[in-house]
Amino acid sequence: MFFKALLQASLALPLLYTTASAQTACNNSPSLCDKAYNNITHLGAHNSPFLRDSTTSFSTSGNQYYNTRTQLESGVRLLSGQVHKKNNTSGNSAWHMCHSSCDLLDAGTLEEWLSEIKSWMDSNPNDVVTVLLVNSDNASPAELGASFESTGLDKLAYSPPSLSQPPETWPTLQSLISNGTRLMTFVASLTPSAQYPYLMDEFTFIFENDFENETPTAYSCTPNRPSPLTTEQAATSGRMFFMNHFLYSVQLFGIQSPNDTYIGTTNAQTGLGSLGEAITSCTGVYSKPPTFVLVDFFNVGPAIGSVDTANSVSNPTGRRSAPAEVLQETSGVSRQQGSMFAVVVAVVAAISFGM
Ligand SMILES: *[C@@H]1O[C@H](CO)[C@@H](O)[C@H](O)[C@H]1NC(C)=O
Ligand SMILES: *[C@@H]1O[C@H](CO)[C@@H](O)[C@H](O)[C@H]1NC(C)=O
Ligand SMILES: *[C@@H]1O[C@H](CO)[C@@H](O)[C@H](O)[C@H]1NC(C)=O
Ligand SMILES: *[C@@H]1O[C@H](CO)[C@@H](O)[C@H](O)[C@H]1NC(C)=O
Ligand SMILES: *[C@@H]1O[C@H](CO)[C@@H](O)[C@H](O)[C@H]1NC(C)=O
Protein backbone atom coordinates (compact mmCIF):
# COMPACT_ATOMS: atom_id res chain seq x y z
CA MET A 1 0.00 0.00 0.00
CA PHE A 2 2.76 2.37 1.04
CA PHE A 3 4.87 1.51 -2.00
CA LYS A 4 1.90 1.89 -4.28
CA ALA A 5 1.43 5.42 -2.99
CA LEU A 6 5.10 6.13 -3.61
CA LEU A 7 4.82 4.76 -7.13
CA GLN A 8 1.91 7.08 -7.78
CA ALA A 9 3.89 9.95 -6.36
CA SER A 10 6.82 9.17 -8.65
CA LEU A 11 4.51 9.21 -11.66
CA ALA A 12 3.64 12.77 -10.68
CA LEU A 13 7.29 13.84 -10.96
CA PRO A 14 7.30 14.73 -14.67
CA LEU A 15 4.75 17.40 -13.84
CA LEU A 16 7.32 19.17 -11.74
CA TYR A 17 10.26 18.87 -14.08
CA THR A 18 10.34 19.19 -17.84
CA THR A 19 12.11 16.11 -19.16
CA ALA A 20 13.83 15.49 -22.54
CA SER A 21 17.46 15.81 -23.41
CA ALA A 22 18.84 17.66 -20.42
CA GLN A 23 22.27 16.11 -21.06
CA THR A 24 22.73 17.89 -24.36
CA ALA A 25 21.37 21.21 -23.14
CA CYS A 26 23.54 23.97 -21.72
CA ASN A 27 21.70 26.18 -19.21
CA ASN A 28 18.41 24.49 -20.16
CA SER A 29 18.71 24.68 -23.93
CA PRO A 30 20.87 23.01 -26.62
CA SER A 31 20.71 26.28 -28.58
CA LEU A 32 22.82 28.06 -25.94
CA CYS A 33 25.83 25.69 -25.96
CA ASP A 34 27.67 27.42 -28.79
CA LYS A 35 26.92 30.94 -27.65
CA ALA A 36 29.55 32.98 -25.88
CA TYR A 37 29.00 33.50 -22.14
CA ASN A 38 28.38 37.21 -22.70
CA ASN A 39 26.10 36.65 -25.70
CA ILE A 40 23.28 35.18 -23.67
CA THR A 41 21.05 36.67 -21.01
CA HIS A 42 21.42 35.14 -17.55
CA LEU A 43 18.54 35.47 -15.11
CA GLY A 44 19.80 36.76 -11.76
CA ALA A 45 18.23 36.47 -8.32
CA HIS A 46 18.87 39.70 -6.43
CA ASN A 47 20.01 38.89 -2.90
CA SER A 48 19.56 35.18 -3.56
CA PRO A 49 20.02 33.92 0.03
CA PHE A 50 17.79 36.58 1.62
CA LEU A 51 14.39 34.99 1.83
CA ARG A 52 10.91 36.24 2.52
CA ASP A 53 9.45 32.91 3.61
CA SER A 54 8.65 30.90 6.72
CA THR A 55 12.36 30.50 7.55
CA THR A 56 12.64 34.27 8.09
CA SER A 57 9.05 34.82 9.34
CA PHE A 58 8.41 36.53 6.00
CA SER A 59 11.00 39.22 6.66
CA THR A 60 10.46 42.41 4.65
CA SER A 61 14.25 42.35 4.13
CA GLY A 62 13.84 39.21 2.05
CA ASN A 63 14.16 39.59 -1.74
CA GLN A 64 13.18 36.06 -2.81
CA TYR A 65 10.38 33.67 -1.89
CA TYR A 66 12.35 30.54 -2.84
CA ASN A 67 15.84 29.54 -1.82
CA THR A 68 19.01 29.35 -3.88
CA ARG A 69 18.56 25.68 -4.81
CA THR A 70 15.00 26.28 -6.04
CA GLN A 71 16.22 29.36 -7.93
CA LEU A 72 18.80 27.23 -9.75
CA GLU A 73 16.29 24.46 -10.41
CA SER A 74 13.98 27.07 -11.95
CA GLY A 75 16.52 28.52 -14.39
CA VAL A 76 18.19 31.30 -12.39
CA ARG A 77 21.88 31.32 -13.36
CA LEU A 78 23.21 34.35 -11.52
CA LEU A 79 23.10 34.57 -7.74
CA SER A 80 23.91 37.78 -5.91
CA GLY A 81 24.42 38.28 -2.20
CA GLN A 82 26.15 40.51 0.33
CA VAL A 83 29.07 39.25 2.39
CA HIS A 84 29.50 40.76 5.86
CA LYS A 85 31.95 40.18 8.66
CA LYS A 86 30.12 38.91 11.69
CA ASN A 87 31.66 38.95 15.16
CA ASN A 88 30.62 36.29 17.59
CA THR A 89 30.50 36.42 21.35
CA SER A 90 33.92 34.81 21.75
CA GLY A 91 35.54 37.64 19.82
CA ASN A 92 36.00 35.62 16.61
CA SER A 93 34.64 36.65 13.27
CA ALA A 94 33.25 34.81 10.27
CA TRP A 95 31.99 35.81 6.82
CA HIS A 96 28.21 35.70 6.64
CA MET A 97 25.56 36.37 4.02
CA CYS A 98 23.65 39.25 5.61
CA HIS A 99 21.23 41.83 4.25
CA SER A 100 22.63 45.28 5.08
CA SER A 101 23.52 44.10 8.60
CA CYS A 102 23.68 40.72 10.28
CA ASP A 103 21.20 41.99 12.90
CA LEU A 104 18.63 42.58 10.17
CA LEU A 105 18.83 39.29 8.25
CA ASP A 106 21.58 36.69 8.62
CA ALA A 107 21.30 33.88 6.08
CA GLY A 108 24.27 31.92 7.46
CA THR A 109 27.90 31.74 6.49
CA LEU A 110 29.39 32.37 3.06
CA GLU A 111 30.71 28.81 3.21
CA GLU A 112 27.25 27.34 3.79
CA TRP A 113 25.82 29.31 0.88
CA LEU A 114 28.65 28.32 -1.46
CA SER A 115 28.14 24.67 -0.41
CA GLU A 116 24.51 24.88 -1.46
CA ILE A 117 25.63 26.14 -4.87
CA LYS A 118 28.40 23.52 -5.17
CA SER A 119 26.00 20.73 -4.39
CA TRP A 120 23.57 21.85 -7.09
CA MET A 121 26.36 22.30 -9.64
CA ASP A 122 27.69 18.80 -8.90
CA SER A 123 24.35 17.29 -9.81
CA ASN A 124 23.89 19.58 -12.85
CA PRO A 125 27.13 19.24 -14.81
CA ASN A 126 25.89 21.05 -17.93
CA ASP A 127 25.13 24.37 -16.30
CA VAL A 128 27.17 27.54 -16.08
CA VAL A 129 26.47 29.52 -12.91
CA THR A 130 27.53 33.05 -11.98
CA VAL A 131 27.99 34.30 -8.41
CA LEU A 132 28.17 38.01 -7.60
CA LEU A 133 29.39 38.83 -4.11
CA VAL A 134 28.82 42.32 -2.77
CA ASN A 135 31.87 42.79 -0.62
CA SER A 136 30.28 44.89 2.13
CA ASP A 137 33.13 44.66 4.65
CA ASN A 138 36.03 44.56 2.21
CA ALA A 139 37.03 40.94 2.58
CA SER A 140 40.38 40.20 0.96
CA PRO A 141 40.77 37.71 -1.91
CA ALA A 142 42.35 35.29 0.59
CA GLU A 143 39.42 35.61 3.00
CA LEU A 144 36.83 34.98 0.27
CA GLY A 145 39.02 32.40 -1.44
CA ALA A 146 39.17 30.31 1.75
CA SER A 147 35.44 29.54 1.46
CA PHE A 148 35.76 28.70 -2.25
CA GLU A 149 38.56 26.29 -1.39
CA SER A 150 36.84 24.65 1.57
CA THR A 151 33.70 24.00 -0.48
CA GLY A 152 35.62 22.88 -3.58
CA LEU A 153 34.02 25.59 -5.70
CA ASP A 154 37.46 26.90 -6.62
CA LYS A 155 37.89 23.71 -8.69
CA LEU A 156 34.89 24.69 -10.83
CA ALA A 157 35.81 28.35 -11.16
CA TYR A 158 36.80 30.10 -14.37
CA SER A 159 39.85 32.37 -14.36
CA PRO A 160 40.04 35.05 -17.06
CA PRO A 161 43.19 35.63 -19.13
CA SER A 162 43.65 39.00 -17.41
CA LEU A 163 42.29 40.31 -14.12
CA SER A 164 42.70 43.94 -15.15
CA GLN A 165 40.69 44.10 -18.38
CA PRO A 166 37.81 42.24 -20.01
CA PRO A 167 38.79 39.55 -22.54
CA GLU A 168 38.16 40.28 -26.23
CA THR A 169 35.85 37.31 -26.42
CA TRP A 170 34.32 35.19 -23.70
CA PRO A 171 34.27 31.37 -24.01
CA THR A 172 31.11 29.60 -25.11
CA LEU A 173 28.99 27.81 -22.52
CA GLN A 174 30.08 24.49 -24.04
CA SER A 175 33.77 25.28 -23.67
CA LEU A 176 33.29 26.36 -20.06
CA ILE A 177 31.42 23.11 -19.42
CA SER A 178 33.99 20.94 -21.25
CA ASN A 179 36.83 22.63 -19.41
CA GLY A 180 35.16 22.14 -16.03
CA THR A 181 35.21 25.89 -15.38
CA ARG A 182 31.45 26.46 -15.08
CA LEU A 183 31.48 28.96 -12.24
CA MET A 184 31.97 32.67 -12.91
CA THR A 185 32.64 34.74 -9.80
CA PHE A 186 32.49 38.50 -9.61
CA VAL A 187 33.10 40.56 -6.49
CA ALA A 188 32.02 44.18 -5.93
CA SER A 189 34.59 45.33 -5.29
CA LEU A 190 37.96 43.70 -4.90
CA THR A 191 41.64 44.35 -5.53
CA PRO A 192 42.40 41.28 -7.60
CA SER A 193 45.04 38.78 -6.57
CA ALA A 194 46.97 36.44 -8.86
CA GLN A 195 46.67 33.81 -6.14
CA TYR A 196 42.88 33.83 -6.52
CA PRO A 197 42.56 34.41 -10.27
CA TYR A 198 38.91 33.32 -10.32
CA LEU A 199 37.80 36.21 -8.09
CA MET A 200 37.06 38.87 -10.68
CA ASP A 201 36.54 42.49 -9.72
CA GLU A 202 32.99 43.15 -10.91
CA PHE A 203 33.44 46.62 -12.37
CA THR A 204 36.48 45.63 -14.41
CA PHE A 205 34.27 43.21 -16.36
CA ILE A 206 30.73 44.55 -15.93
CA PHE A 207 28.79 47.80 -15.97
CA GLU A 208 25.39 48.26 -14.34
CA ASN A 209 22.48 50.62 -14.72
CA ASP A 210 21.05 52.38 -11.64
CA PHE A 211 19.46 50.01 -9.13
CA GLU A 212 17.73 52.61 -6.95
CA ASN A 213 14.29 52.71 -8.54
CA GLU A 214 11.17 53.60 -6.62
CA THR A 215 8.67 54.12 -9.45
CA PRO A 216 8.01 52.00 -12.55
CA THR A 217 8.93 54.94 -14.79
CA ALA A 218 12.39 55.37 -13.27
CA TYR A 219 14.34 52.57 -14.99
CA SER A 220 17.21 53.60 -17.18
CA CYS A 221 19.73 51.83 -19.45
CA THR A 222 22.37 54.48 -18.73
CA PRO A 223 25.52 53.21 -17.00
CA ASN A 224 25.60 54.01 -13.29
CA ARG A 225 28.59 51.98 -12.10
CA PRO A 226 31.51 52.06 -12.59
CA SER A 227 31.40 55.82 -12.52
CA PRO A 228 31.90 57.85 -14.60
CA LEU A 229 31.17 55.84 -17.73
CA THR A 230 29.08 57.16 -20.59
CA THR A 231 26.79 54.89 -22.61
CA GLU A 232 29.24 55.10 -25.50
CA GLN A 233 32.23 54.25 -23.31
CA ALA A 234 30.37 51.39 -21.66
CA ALA A 235 29.37 49.90 -25.00
CA THR A 236 32.93 49.97 -26.33
CA SER A 237 34.75 49.07 -23.10
CA GLY A 238 34.22 45.33 -23.53
CA ARG A 239 32.33 45.20 -20.24
CA MET A 240 29.13 43.15 -20.04
CA PHE A 241 25.83 44.92 -19.35
CA PHE A 242 24.19 44.01 -16.07
CA MET A 243 20.60 45.25 -15.95
CA ASN A 244 19.14 45.81 -12.49
CA HIS A 245 15.38 45.52 -12.61
CA PHE A 246 13.69 45.70 -9.26
CA LEU A 247 11.55 48.23 -7.46
CA TYR A 248 11.89 49.54 -3.94
CA SER A 249 9.10 50.83 -1.82
CA VAL A 250 9.98 53.47 0.69
CA GLN A 251 8.97 52.88 4.29
CA LEU A 252 9.07 55.19 7.28
CA PHE A 253 12.38 57.02 7.78
CA GLY A 254 13.24 56.39 4.12
CA ILE A 255 14.02 52.70 4.68
CA GLN A 256 13.77 50.79 1.40
CA SER A 257 12.31 47.33 1.02
CA PRO A 258 11.33 45.38 -2.10
CA ASN A 259 8.00 46.49 -3.56
CA ASP A 260 6.01 43.25 -3.56
CA THR A 261 2.65 44.78 -4.45
CA TYR A 262 3.79 45.74 -7.97
CA ILE A 263 6.04 42.70 -8.51
CA GLY A 264 3.52 41.03 -10.84
CA THR A 265 4.11 43.83 -13.36
CA THR A 266 7.78 44.48 -12.54
CA ASN A 267 8.69 40.91 -13.52
CA ALA A 268 6.18 40.56 -16.37
CA GLN A 269 6.87 40.61 -20.11
CA THR A 270 4.65 43.62 -20.74
CA GLY A 271 3.29 46.56 -18.74
CA LEU A 272 4.59 49.80 -17.28
CA GLY A 273 8.02 49.13 -15.81
CA SER A 274 8.02 45.46 -16.85
CA LEU A 275 11.15 43.39 -17.25
CA GLY A 276 10.24 42.49 -20.83
CA GLU A 277 9.91 46.12 -21.88
CA ALA A 278 13.10 47.11 -20.07
CA ILE A 279 15.08 44.37 -21.87
CA THR A 280 13.67 45.53 -25.22
CA SER A 281 14.52 49.12 -24.47
CA CYS A 282 18.12 48.42 -23.36
CA THR A 283 18.64 45.97 -26.24
CA GLY A 284 17.95 48.96 -28.49
CA VAL A 285 20.54 51.08 -26.70
CA TYR A 286 23.38 48.53 -26.73
CA SER A 287 22.40 46.58 -29.90
CA LYS A 288 22.32 43.37 -27.88
CA PRO A 289 20.34 42.09 -24.92
CA PRO A 290 21.80 42.56 -21.42
CA THR A 291 24.13 39.74 -20.34
CA PHE A 292 22.55 39.72 -16.88
CA VAL A 293 19.20 40.82 -15.52
CA LEU A 294 18.74 40.99 -11.76
CA VAL A 295 15.29 40.69 -10.21
CA ASP A 296 13.56 40.33 -6.86
CA PHE A 297 11.11 37.42 -6.34
CA PHE A 298 12.26 35.70 -9.55
CA ASN A 299 9.33 33.26 -9.62
CA VAL A 300 6.78 36.04 -10.12
CA GLY A 301 6.15 37.10 -13.72
CA PRO A 302 7.67 34.61 -14.21
CA ALA A 303 10.84 36.58 -14.90
CA ILE A 304 12.36 33.66 -16.81
CA GLY A 305 9.80 34.27 -19.59
CA SER A 306 11.46 37.51 -20.70
CA VAL A 307 14.90 35.92 -20.40
CA ASP A 308 13.89 32.98 -22.60
CA THR A 309 12.58 35.47 -25.15
CA ALA A 310 15.88 37.41 -25.07
CA ASN A 311 17.73 34.10 -25.62
CA SER A 312 15.28 32.90 -28.30
CA VAL A 313 14.67 29.79 -26.18
CA SER A 314 11.24 28.31 -26.73
CA ASN A 315 11.62 24.78 -25.36
CA PRO A 316 13.66 24.89 -22.16
CA THR A 317 14.56 21.48 -20.72
CA GLY A 318 15.41 20.19 -17.25
CA ARG A 319 13.80 23.09 -15.49
CA ARG A 320 11.32 23.22 -12.67
CA SER A 321 8.49 25.76 -12.58
CA ALA A 322 8.18 27.39 -9.19
CA PRO A 323 4.67 28.77 -8.54
CA ALA A 324 4.48 32.27 -10.03
CA GLU A 325 2.49 33.76 -7.17
CA VAL A 326 3.48 36.22 -4.49
CA LEU A 327 4.08 34.11 -1.38
CA GLN A 328 2.30 35.27 1.71
CA GLU A 329 2.33 33.98 5.21
CA THR A 330 -1.30 32.92 5.29
CA SER A 331 -1.94 32.21 1.61
CA GLY A 332 -2.94 28.85 0.20
CA VAL A 333 0.12 29.09 -2.03
CA SER A 334 2.48 28.29 0.80
CA ARG A 335 0.35 25.30 1.85
CA GLN A 336 0.24 23.95 -1.71
CA GLN A 337 3.93 24.48 -1.95
CA GLY A 338 4.39 22.49 1.25
CA SER A 339 2.50 19.51 -0.14
CA MET A 340 4.39 19.72 -3.44
CA PHE A 341 7.66 19.48 -1.57
CA ALA A 342 6.25 16.57 0.42
CA VAL A 343 5.71 14.67 -2.84
CA VAL A 344 9.28 15.35 -3.92
CA VAL A 345 10.57 14.17 -0.54
CA ALA A 346 8.48 10.98 -0.84
CA VAL A 347 9.88 10.28 -4.30
CA VAL A 348 13.46 10.90 -3.25
CA ALA A 349 12.89 8.60 -0.28
CA ALA A 350 11.45 5.97 -2.62
CA ILE A 351 14.45 6.21 -4.93
CA SER A 352 16.95 5.99 -2.11
CA PHE A 353 15.19 2.93 -0.71
CA GLY A 354 15.75 1.26 -4.04
CA MET A 355 12.18 0.92 -5.18
C1 LIG B 1 28.81 36.92 -29.93
O1 LIG B 1 28.12 38.03 -30.45
C2 LIG B 1 28.88 38.79 -31.41
C3 LIG B 1 28.00 39.96 -31.86
O2 LIG B 1 27.60 40.70 -30.75
C4 LIG B 1 29.22 37.92 -32.59
O3 LIG B 1 30.04 38.65 -33.47
C5 LIG B 1 29.96 36.67 -32.10
O4 LIG B 1 30.16 35.80 -33.20
C6 LIG B 1 29.16 35.95 -31.05
N1 LIG B 1 29.97 34.83 -30.58
C7 LIG B 1 29.48 33.73 -30.03
C8 LIG B 1 30.43 32.62 -29.82
O5 LIG B 1 28.33 33.64 -29.63
C1 LIG C 1 33.74 43.31 14.79
O1 LIG C 1 34.93 43.47 15.54
C2 LIG C 1 35.86 44.37 14.97
C3 LIG C 1 37.14 44.39 15.80
O2 LIG C 1 37.06 43.55 16.90
C4 LIG C 1 35.23 45.76 14.91
O3 LIG C 1 36.12 46.67 14.28
C5 LIG C 1 33.96 45.68 14.07
O4 LIG C 1 33.30 46.94 14.06
C6 LIG C 1 33.01 44.63 14.63
N1 LIG C 1 31.90 44.51 13.71
C7 LIG C 1 30.63 44.47 14.09
C8 LIG C 1 29.59 44.36 13.03
O5 LIG C 1 30.30 44.50 15.28
C1 LIG D 1 33.03 31.88 17.16
O1 LIG D 1 33.68 31.68 15.92
C2 LIG D 1 34.70 30.70 15.95
C3 LIG D 1 35.41 30.73 14.61
O2 LIG D 1 34.51 30.77 13.54
C4 LIG D 1 34.07 29.37 16.30
O3 LIG D 1 35.06 28.35 16.34
C5 LIG D 1 33.37 29.46 17.65
O4 LIG D 1 32.68 28.26 17.92
C6 LIG D 1 32.36 30.60 17.65
N1 LIG D 1 31.85 30.79 19.01
C7 LIG D 1 30.56 31.04 19.24
C8 LIG D 1 30.17 31.23 20.68
O5 LIG D 1 29.72 31.11 18.36
C1 LIG E 1 40.32 25.22 -21.64
O1 LIG E 1 41.48 24.70 -21.03
C2 LIG E 1 42.62 24.76 -21.86
C3 LIG E 1 43.72 24.03 -21.15
O2 LIG E 1 43.84 24.46 -19.83
C4 LIG E 1 42.97 26.21 -22.13
O3 LIG E 1 44.08 26.30 -22.97
C5 LIG E 1 41.78 26.86 -22.79
O4 LIG E 1 42.03 28.25 -22.96
C6 LIG E 1 40.55 26.67 -21.96
N1 LIG E 1 39.41 27.18 -22.68
C7 LIG E 1 38.52 27.98 -22.11
C8 LIG E 1 37.41 28.36 -22.98
O5 LIG E 1 38.62 28.37 -20.97
C1 LIG F 1 4.67 49.62 -5.45
O1 LIG F 1 4.72 50.38 -6.64
C2 LIG F 1 3.46 50.71 -7.18
C3 LIG F 1 3.71 51.38 -8.52
O2 LIG F 1 4.45 52.55 -8.35
C4 LIG F 1 2.75 51.62 -6.19
O3 LIG F 1 1.46 51.93 -6.68
C5 LIG F 1 2.62 50.88 -4.86
O4 LIG F 1 2.07 51.75 -3.89
C6 LIG F 1 3.99 50.42 -4.38
N1 LIG F 1 3.79 49.57 -3.22
C7 LIG F 1 4.38 49.81 -2.07
C8 LIG F 1 4.11 48.83 -0.98
O5 LIG F 1 5.10 50.77 -1.88
UniProtKB/TrEMBL annotation:
InterPro entries xrefs: PI-PLC_domain (IPR051057), PLC-like_Pdiesterase_TIM-brl (IPR017946)
Residues of the signal peptide: 1-22
Keyword ATP-binding listed: no
SUPFAM superfamilies: PLC-like phosphodiesterases
Entry keywords, A to Z: Signal
GO molecular function, a single term: phosphoric diester hydrolase activity
Pfam families reported for this sequence: PI-PLC_X (PF26146)
GO biological process terms held by the UniProt record: lipid metabolic process
Stated name of the protein: PLC-like phosphodiesterase
